[in-house]
Amino acid sequence: MVSSRLYRVAVLVLDGAKPLDVGIPAQVFTTRASMPYEVRVCGAAPGLVTGGDGLAYHVAHGLDALAWADIVFVPGYRFPDRDDPPPAVVAALVAAHERGARLAAISTGAFALAATGLLDGRRATTHWHYARALKERHPLVLVDENVLFVDEGTLLTSAGAASGIDLCLHILRGDLGVAASNHAARRLVAAPYRSGGQAQYVPRSVPEPLGERFATTREWALRRLGEHLTLDDLARQAGVSPRTFSRRFVEETGYTPMQWVMRARVDLARELLERSQRGVEQIAADVGLGTGANLRLHFQQILGTSPAEYRRTFTRGE
To answer: Strand, coil or helix: what is 83?
Structure first.
């Protein structure tokens, strides 16, 4: 399903911009027939922008792109704790947000959003190395360094470069649905879904074989969502005790094992609602939730909507 709406995306390149942070939204939302996005890369002014890591960028657009965009990405940049972006950039970001555009920061791009004052009193994240600096420079921002990304509606922030992919896929999922997000993830050879609540890094050293077993266990569970799965089943497959599995799983994903399974089941149900004509009862059975009533309950708890409304939203314009 391709949306009938065209989303306009601006990628704002500031001095010292980090190459991966610039490339991620430009590639994820690249203009193509299967993706209803148009991307413009811009700077404080058209022309050459000195980037970080020995690279420079020649951008075709200036701040007028922010007045055009529905979504504005601010990639991370070097030394964000030293100076705020130029006043014209800050003013353009504020104006874009007031007009209704979403502002999304990757890594240290959060400092630019914080400089607008729009993040005051709101949750936000940034690369863990700069979390303390963000707190000190902008004390009214509620900085959470232990998550991959934060969605505050029209203000979104993410941690390091890899979590920028997670944030972009999260935005895709909201705009176009799970099927389109999963398709983009396959194109990028990226994990189709890592929750925003997942930790940026594991707080203690975990032996590599254990980490590999947990990744294998998650893949194992994803192939068996329609079956009855218990904590004991997952722990047995991982080769550790249920107590150890549960504790380490929370550290790695931000969810208990069974919370993660439930969200995976709802995510699969979302894709089936988008891509098939199966009824709610059949989908509930297919994803391991048993009954339509159970599916509706968890849809409401996790997504704040019903399966029927979700299907209507992501099949309009087909």
So the answer is: coil
